UniProtKB/TrEMBL annotation:
The phosphoenolpyruvate-dependent sugar phosphotransferase system (PTS), including enzyme I, and histidine-containing protein (HPr) are required for the phosphorylation, which leads to the activation of the enzyme. Glycerol binds at residues 83-84, 135, 245-246. ADP binds at residues 13, 17, 267, 310, 411, 415. Homotetramer and homodimer (in equilibrium). This is Glycerol kinase. GO terms for biological process: glycerol catabolic process; glycerol-3-phosphate metabolic process. Residues 262-450 form the Carbohydrate kinase FGGY C-terminal domain. It comes from the Bacteria.
Length: 502
């Protein structure tokens, strides 16, 4: 057994994990911890950044204790994270000045709407590859600076620091030595010029965000700092990879060639296509983003972001009490006798790609006196597959590239009913990764490449192993018929703007 390892810290929207991999890319040990979701007002989602940091420390301690592996055996650490989520903290005390505003949160819709109204849409799209939306960090920074007394002034003086979760964890792990982000996370702030690879002065000015609070943006595979303090029991382990979780999954799925696509079904679902070394702007409301920067090159990607995927299953569990656990949804869907005519549109925090409708809210269609719990659960699972077809159809239209196979991963990809329905509704084979921790593996690969644990991409390509493949079994006409029903449901959902109209 190898005695040297790489650790990945995968800080997701609902839980954080510490995973140790060996040189074959095999998971040797892992520890996971959930943390609190705060919903202070309808449509708002916040996290306590200190609770996240505590959860990260506790998973690191657990993974060492449970595996018996020592910190000195860890050659490098890769961080991967829920993107866009925004933390602002005091440089001296290290304390956040407000909760982290989570990517899903809609509390900054007014700021986004004003930017749009003031005519910044085209400029922001051209420079950042993004569409103006409360999803990205920029409006969240503005909101915190507006709502915490004296924050603007302190930020201007350089007393406050901004970071996405990668930056926050790096700063904490390095004992405050490094205030750095990576290109993939920077490209989700709506403040980063993805062509010039630098913070954009025009956008900073439009939002009155002081440059002094921004981290330095760097490529994805290099030593940013070493661990300091008790987290690694005094060992100075290099933190050598950082990457947003969706780009990490692209890398972990080894989608290195242009045209390769993956879908990760986590809290949200994110479909990402590698488009190579030139950024390609979308005409159809997809996002252009930085995939990863390595060996002096930057690879771009097109992305369709679906805001609610696995979190709809959590909603079935925690709010509707229809299941006791997420996996139970599979049995329920298989037990449903409904003719697939109930539709759940889980627009709990608006709709992402390709609609970008921040004001939409969830709806259910097609209920009859005979509709059962099982039917309702099945329709909720199906909504993940329908939303993915929305994005993949858009991606095909945008790029002209046919997608022969969809590579999938993420927690909800465990659900065999969902994977089969996805293959059916797309009429495309769905290929599941052999280990669904692809996101963590992507971050581990980037860290391992930086410290010479792996030599090059060919070295890591050898580790690739696919899991199950789901081939379409549904008649194509039926798939189209059901999908038409979904489109009707989305269109009706978007007409219902009761709260907004009042
Ligand atoms: N068997 C399952 N069927 C459906 N959904 C599932 C299943 N297992 C996990 N999930 C969903 O997947 C999500 C967790 O996936 P994960 O990749 O860990 O997400 P994240 O990185 O966003 O925290 C949860 O929202 C959960 O409801
Ligand atoms: O926590 P996940 O895996 O759903 O990913 C969140 C995304 O990074 C948000 O853009």
């Amino acid at each position: 057994m190898s005695s040297e390892y790489i650790m990945a810290i995968d800080e997701g929207t609902t839980s954080t994990r510490a995973i140790i991999f060996d040189q074959k890319g095999t998971k040797i040990a892992d520890a996971q911890r959930e943390f609190t979701q705060h919903f202070p007002e309808p449509g708002w989602v916040e996290h306590d950044a200190n609770e996240i940091w505590n959860a990260v420390q506790s998973t690191i301690a657990s993974v060492f204790i449970e595996s018996g592996i020592k910190p000195t055996q860890i050659k490098g650490i890769g961080i991967t994270n829920q993107r866009e989520t925004t933390v602002i903290w005091d440089k001296k005390t290290g304390l956040p000045i407000y909760n982290a505003i989570v990517w899903q949160s809609r509390q900054t819709s007014d700021i986004a709407a004003k930017l749009e109204k003031d005519g910044y849409g085209k400029m922001i799209h051209e420079k950042t590859g993004l569409l103006i939306d409360p999803y990205f960090s920029a409006t969240k920074i503005r909101w915190i600076l507006d709502h915490v007394d004296g924050a603007q002034e302190r930020a201007e003086k350089g007393d406050l620091l901004f970071g996405t979760i990668d930056t926050w964890l790096l700063w904490k792990l390095s004992g405050g030595a490094a205030h750095v982000t990576d290109y993939s996370n920077a490209s989700r702030t709506m403040l980063f010029n993805i062509h010039e690879l630098k913070w954009d002065d025009d956008i900073l000015k439009a939002l009155n965000i002081p440059k002094a609070m921004l981290p330095e943006a760097r490529p994805n595979s290099e030593v940013y700092a070493t661990t300091k303090g008790y987290h690694f029991y005094g060992s100075e382990v290099p933190i050598a990879g950082m990457i947003g979780d969706q780009q990490a999954a692209l890398f972990g799925q080894m989608a290195f060639e242009p045209g390769m696509v993956k879908n990760t079904y986590g809290t949200g679902a994110f479909i990402v296509m590698n488009t190579g070394e030139k950024p390609q702007l979308s005409d159809n409301n997809l996002l252009t983003t930085i995939g990863y920067g390595i060996n002096g090159k930057v690879y771009y990607a097109l992305e369709g972001s679906i805001f609610v995927a696995g979190s709809a299953i959590q909603w079935l569990r925690d709010a509707m009490h229809l299941v006791d656990s997420a996996p139970e949804s599979e049995e329920a869907a298989l037990a449903s006798n409904d003719d697939d005519e109930v539709y759940v549109v889980p627009a709990f925090t608006g709709l992402g790609a390709p609609y970008w409708d921040a004001d939409a809210r969830g709806a259910v269609f097609g209920l009859t006196r005979g509709t059962t719990r099982d039917d309702f659960i099945k329709a909720t699972l199906q909504s993940l597959a329908y939303q993915s077809r929305d994005v993949l159809e858009t991606m095909k239209r945008d790029t002209g590239i046919a997608i022969p196979t969809l590579k999938v991963d993420g927690g909800a990809a465990n659900n065999r009913y969902l994977m089969q329905f996805q293959a059916d509704i797309l009429q495309t084979p769905v290929q599941r990764a052999s280990d669904l921790e692809t996101t963590a593996l992507g971050a581990a690969f980037l860290a391992g490449l930086a410290v010479g644990y792996w030599d090059n991409l060919d070295d890591i390509k050898k580790q690739y192993a696919t899991g199950a493949t789901f081939d379409p079994e549904m008649d194509p006409k039926r798939a189209d018929y059901l999908y038409e029903g979904w489109k009707d449901a989305v269109s009706a959902t978007r007409k219902f703007k009761h709260k907004v109209r009042n």
